[in-house]
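Checked the freezer inventory, then went back to the computational side. Two predictions to log before the end of the day. The first one is the construct we discussed on Monday; recording sequence and tokens without edits.
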Amino acid sequence: MKKIDTAQKALALHKKLGGKIRIMPAAPVRNRADLSLVYTPGVAAVSMHVAQNPKDARIYTGKGRMIAVISDGSAVLGLGNIGPLGALPVMEGKCALFKTFAGVDAIPLVLDTSPFAKASAGQARYESEIDFIVNTVLAVAPGFGGINLEDIAAPKCFEIERRIVEKLDIPVMHDDQHGTAIVVLAGIINALKVVKKKIETARIVIAGAGAAGSATAKLLHAAGARHILVLDRQGIIDKSRAEAHKKELATFTNLKGEMGDLKRALINADVFLGVSGPNIATAEDIRLMAQGAIVLAMANPTPEIMPDEAKKGGAVIIGTGRSDFPNQINNSLAFPGVFRGALDNRVTKITMDMKLKAAKAIAALVPKPTAQKIVPDMFDKRVAKAVAKVIR
């Protein structure tokens, strides 16, 4: 009998279910009496109360418990720019994880940015795709208690998040940036304990200067890292780069002005973080690293270096983004708890301090880390609660 692989099983499951999420009423509608309270005429009193007391929307509607998971499909998982419909199964999955791990209700909203140049008949044209996305998110925001941006390509994701955060009084987080950074820092905290090194003196190399790489570099720096090199396709980033987010990276990374490719960067490195693409490193490259090398290769589905190859190169601690290897570095350890805490504590902004505390809370759930276990399991029920507790 032919073995059915994961891809075939996933296709069959999604076809059978017709998507992974459902909307269920919190109040029963069994008869006319129920209908008069849930809908007309009773709902009119609720509508008028909320209109006159906007802050009470969190109490009288689902706003206080609902997250919008928003994507334009321009950077989906390891699949790239596959558009809004391609992104929809991923956003539905995200919503399922919100509910499963933190009891947070979430709705997927995928945006077709192709008509961004023309809003609609009789209206002025948007100046850019970024304007279109920002204005669309701002327009739907009143119905939600938080915005989770997802799978939006760099560098536009940086400006989109910044502009939305400035305009809204609800928490906004681009999970590809900050969820990744939180979990990576948690893993690094515990990995460094295992190899008896300190973050302040560790030489850290990050392959990938997009959303995840940039945010991870910033959070590591905020946590005390002082020797960080970030690379893109052109090599080690320095102050000569023209892109705004890479210029910013150069203000606190590569302080010695090093030049070269990944092989050059890995010489005597203590940590190699991969947030770029498949198979960019070899065992020979890992051998260039310092004793006690830590390798977190997180490209999905194929990491920057496979675990057996990294081990062959002498890596002591190895992690990936995959569930079929030890040390899965996965955003789901962070985002459910972050938004659970933000909703419960009426947080309006996700700050750097909150992200640092979230990473430390995740790391603390593995009090005696080993090379095979530097972060808790995704299904550890303590995780979302521990993270939510520090988001206040």
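The second is the one RB wanted added to the comparison set:
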Amino acid sequence: MNMARLKKMLIPVEQAMMASAFAEEGEFATAISLVRNSRRVLLALREGKADSKTLKYAMNAAKRINAQLDILNVMPPQATQAEENHAVEAFLPELQAAGIPFRVVRRTGCLKEQIIEHTTREKEVLFTVIESPAQLEGECRKSGRELSELWRTLKCPLVVVMDAAS
């Protein structure tokens, strides 16, 4: 086993040991923050658009399980940052007020491909929240068959909050 891989495997063990030490000394907030940093919920949005129910669901889920919230905002390749929907920006103060650590990750292209890429790179993602299955296909370069095969390799469960048809 190479040394880099071994060091990467030891990181969660070190974090757990540090959290335990802080908890033993009565520093519960610090201990919780160390544990919380290793768990993530991914909220995947296309063009920054989301129903308030979807945003609330992702926020409440992250809060209940003491996880960070990654907001993956995928835009078409030709879009500019100025074109982003303001729903995400309006949602950020609510996350701050709830004390939920978050980060906004901006990407371009196919939402489905970007979800797969993000969950492959970020092993701590417990599940992914999307608003509607209809969001997933826009701007995808790969064929439907290739994407279906990739989709089976998704590293976490997918939660669909509501269907766009309803």
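For RB: Strands lie at 40-46, 68-75, 102-108, 125-130, 158-160. The domain at 39-160 is CATH 3.40.50.620 (Rossmann fold). Let me know if you want it refolded.
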